[in-house]
Amino acid sequence: MKIATWNVNSIRARLERLVAWLKTHQPDVVCLQELKVADAEFPLLAVQEAGYHAAVYGQRTYNGVAILSRAEPAEVERGLCDGVQDDQARLICARFADVRVLSAYVPNGGEVGSDKYAYKLEWLRRLRGYLERRCEPRQPLALCGDFNVAPEPRDVADPEAWADTVLFHPEVRAALEQVRSWGLRDAFRIHHEEGGLYSWWDYRMLAFPKNRGLRIDHIFVSEPLAERCVDSSIHRQERKGKQPSDHAPVLAEFKAA
DNA sequence: ATGGTTGCTTAGCAA
Q1: Does residue A164 have an active-site annotation?
Q2: Local confidence band at A188 (pLDDT 50, 70, 90 cut-offs)
Q3: Which of A56, A160, A229, A245 has the smallest CB count inside 10 Å?
Q4: Which residues pair with A38 in a beta bridge?
Q5: d(Cα A160, Cα A142) in Å, to the nearest integer?
Q6: C-alpha to C-alpha distances, A121 to A2, A130, A185, nearest whole angstrom
Q7: Å between A139 CA and B5 C1'?
Q8: Per-residue pLDDT at A90 exceeds 90
Q9: A243 strand B contact, CB < 7 Å
């Protein structure tokens, strides 16, 4: 079973690339973020023609998440379901046989100390609450998405330069660790120890050609799934060429239980 | 401190 996550930065702008990538790699489940479309505008036909179901939690202009899958999803849930008034579409959950999959778009946070930053920290706290209430670490689970947090110095091209920013501040790293401590392992790090491997590069300042990136897109898995994880990769190739997203897809493969 | 780029939406915001 191949599970992927990709912040596409507008599904309409990326549709051609997305469909081509699905055809090439044939993932079983794909978590998408930053759709930037309302549900009614989601390109469902193109996705279905590529052979995928789609569970969509869309939003006009900003945010929006989805889970594409070859098999039909069960138990689709939209949002954090914690009673908090929040109209930002940032989390969708679905189940495939015994595996629960979540597609998350963690708030960017703007500037450290801003209202958006406070919302980011609170959102990560609420995500931990969601896991505690509705999930079980002894069950197979993959929490995938754009977390807008690089976990460690080796995940950042210039850790000192980024330490005061929303993507790598000690406070957000601690907030991410609080989510992970529920019982999640970083699928990518099961197979890759080295630094210099990133999933996002700023469109500006030639960040990609200079490989000045950060690893902020993750597939976090519960222990039962970690034990089945046989491969993981970042599709850096997708950041190249015509009209790329600023994020590359991240993939993990699991053997049958 | 600012700028650099992209996408959505219509000049400005978010990332």
Answers
A1: no
A2: very high
A3: A160
A4: none
A5: 31
A6: 30, 14, 20
A7: 42
A8: yes
A9: yes
Q: Does the global pTM surpass 0.85? A: yes
The verdict on whether A52 is a catalytic residue reads no
For residue A37, give the nearest of A66, A71, A11, A6 by alpha carbon. Answer: A11
Mean pLDDT calculated for residue range A50-56: 98
Among A52, A57, A105, A117, the active-site one is A105
Residue A34 CA, distance from chain mean position: 10
The answer for residues whose C-beta is within 8 angstroms of residue A83's C-beta and 6 or more apart is none
- Give the per-residue pLDDT at A193: 98
Q: Which residues make beta-bridge pairs with A68?
A: A30, A54
Question: pLDDT tens digits for A5-20?
Answer: 999 999 999 999 999 9
Give residue A187's identity as a one-letter amino acid code. A
> Which residue matches tokens 């950042």?
A156
The pLDDT of residue A176 is 98
Distance CA A238, CA A21 (A): 8
pLDDT at A257 over 90: no
| Token pair in block for residue A162 | 């980024």
Residues 6+ apart with CB under 8 A from A51: A22, A70
Which nucleotide does the CA of A88 lie closest to, via C1'?
B14
Which strands sit side by side in the sheet containing A141-146, from one edge to the other?
A74-78, A91-96, A99-105, A141-146, A217-222, A184-186
Note the pLDDT tens digit of each residue in A154-163: 999 999 999 9
Q: Where do we find the tokens 């110095």?
A: A153
